[in-house]
Amino acid sequence: MTMRSALCLFAALTPLAAADAAKGDDRRICTDNSRACLENTARLYLDALMSADDSKVPLAADVRRTHTLGNGAPVNQGRAIAGEAAMRDSIRQEKLASRGAVRLFTDEARHQVIALWESAAAAPTERAITVMDRIQIEQGLIREVEVISAVREGAPNAVTAQATDPAAPLIEALGDVSAKLRAAPYAASSDIARQNTEKYLAGLLSQAWGFTEQLNMLGTPYFSRGAGVEGLPGLYNPDNLYRSALLEPGGAYRIYGRRGSHADLSFQIIDKYPIVGLGRNLMVIRPDDMGAKPGEDFEFYLGGAPRAGGHWFAMPDRAAAVLTRQSFGDWRETPTSLYIERLDMPPARAYQSPFAQAATAMRQATALWVDGYVPDIERSTTVNVLPAPRPSATDAGGLGGQMSVMARYKIKKGEALLITVRKADAAYQGIQLGDPWFVTPNTVEHQVSLTARQARVDDDGLIRFVISLDDPGVPNWLDPAGNPEGYIFMRWQAIRTPLAGGDAPVARLIPLASLRKALPAQTPVIDSAERRKQLAERKWAPQVR
Question: N or C: lower Cβ tally within 10 Å for the chain?
């Protein structure tokens, strides 16, 4: 195998909206962005690299691929392959002579597939090549591929004599984290557990890489997006749009935007980086307290010299990030536009390998969630018992002023967990489910969450939620997405009337066949057509957030 033919792939780039996907490629085998669609499309591409036959590969008209050696040097002086015709020529000309087994890691939220494989050295003068392939796919079309290959130690050849292997730390971290997750008893307990574990691994990798990109942009920070359709590690709230920017304690920043119509907007200043730490809440800033109303612009300054007039806040010591929460009581509400500008001149920074940074972040995130936070929750909660609401832990990333309930559920087929709670006087009140890895299942294909405004409120002012594996035919079904056990998280934000004893939720495990007897007589029957309508109302939200 030639070195040139082995230099294939590590595709990662920001997911593009499905609406931007090029149209007209009749080679597509699917268009739904499902897990099966993503993986089958990726396999067509990988197979084409072996056969040099591009006839079955569905490529977007504006597809783009770049090649980079393991030492960060671009191949062909950095010229990218751009356009469908050039991409097809490249596939036909760069046939791979051999390839080891391919392991796929799929990130449905970002429509990406990561393929990890290794080629054996074909001759003493060549080195073995480890390849990570991350392919961006939209509606069955391959949009972007970035190529990075890591060369293992061995006899050098003319092409790689100067190459090092900076990608090795990330590849090693990915393998170590994969082994840790798969060693957990839960990971192999069922088909859905295996799928959840694979998605979790993909989510950890995706988060680590995105964090690294932000870490290298401290001089020109930006608000990143925290989650897609499918939740990432940390039980992201489907009713929230999380966006974060990294800070430096000595920096000066202008943060501005236009207030959306959603229920609540908050800016948390925390002392740790998101993803790798549960930062302590140093400050909460609410544009609504400054008079911002939906459709109106807002602006405030953080750090630097005090400013006369306007809204200025001193930068707290040890500030590391600003985390924004946009909470939606109704998914038809509009989001807030957000911008951050650094006003001072930051010092020059020494180069750091993004692969090493991402490897460290991935290990830190795994230690945080897998070894620490989730086991602590398991020890401190009782299955199918909901405690009274309490203030969220601001020393562990919780939002100041928010009340919450954390619990675990466990049900069998034919059982239902009935949760009764009073509708509170709050701008936002919601409930969500998570899988045993503390990850939110797909929030569009499954009704894994409901807000008080989305849910049916009975005449007595109570909301009755039902968790069951099968659709019980009631409005407030919380679909666990096939997970017989997992987490329950309830939240109250912007509370106008303080919660009292009567606001504590009550859970009761009952036979599914007896559910109707436990509900008010006027509870409607939701048939399959009505359920499809409920789900259809959820599908557009991720497109506009």
Answer: N
